[in-house]
Write a structure and sequence with these properties.
With 187 residues, the protein is mostly helical. Helix content is 82%, strand content 0%. The protein is built from seven helices and no strands. It has helices at residues 2-60, 65-80, 84-105, 109-112, 115-150, 154-161, 173-180. The longest helix has 59 residues, at 2-60. Residues 182-187 have low confidence and may be disordered.
Length: 187
């Protein structure tokens, strides 16, 4: 009789332990989703500002249409992405296109002095800084979830319940080389 009770208690403890691990994984997944919702808010602001920036630049840089088209196409792709992973990819492309636009704008000193352009640049810079902060939070939440999904013993529960490693919000390899170079300063 006592052996049966001990076995029953051990089974109950294992079930409670499994439920606890599962609930922890769910909390981590929800934390990651919440972090991406914060990114979405900043991305919405970014998407709203880009057409204004493009229109302002168009007035000065009529022959730079290729760069402006890439920014516009990347924005459209970013706005139509539906899953978190698609949004991460599309936003990386948009960041790359915006970087190309910034490089092209260096050739237009009169544009850089335009008040509307300066205000838009300031707003976009503010949004980009906020995006960087919420991306760090998202990557932290993703790292926590990935650690739990990949470490023992929670990986057992994760595998049985459909949790898997999620991608981080990282800089694309193509932009990484540019960012690793020191900026050129010319007078």
């Amino acid at each position: 009789m006592t052996t049966g009770i001990i076995i029953l208690i051990v089974v109950a403890l294992i079930v409670i332990w499994g439920i606890s691990l599962y609930n922890n994984l769910v909390r981590m997944r929800n934390n990651r989703e919440n972090a991406f919702a914060n990114i979405d808010v900043q991305l919405k602001q970014r998407h709203d500002l880009i057409p204004q920036l493009v229109e302002t630049v168009k007035g000065y840089a009529k022959h730079e249409s290729g760069v402006l088209e890439r920014v516009t196409q990347a924005r459209s792709a970013a706005m139509s992405a539906t899953t978190t992973n698609e949004k991460v990819q599309a936003e990386n492309l948009l960041s790359s296109a915006l970087s190309g636009l910034k490089v092209q704008l260096e050739a237009y000193p009169e544009l850089k002095a335009n008040q509307n352009f300066m205000q838009l640049q300031s707003e976009i810079s503010d949004v980009e800084n906020k995006l960087a902060a919420v991306r760090r939070f998202f990557n932290s939440a993703t790292r926590e979830l990935n650690n739990a999904v990949q470490t023992f013993p929670s990986n057992i529960i994760a595998g049985m319940t459909g949790f898997h490693k999620e991608p981080m919000f990282e800089i694309p390899e193509t932009d990484r080389a540019t960012m690793d170079k020191a900026p050129e300063i010319k007078f």
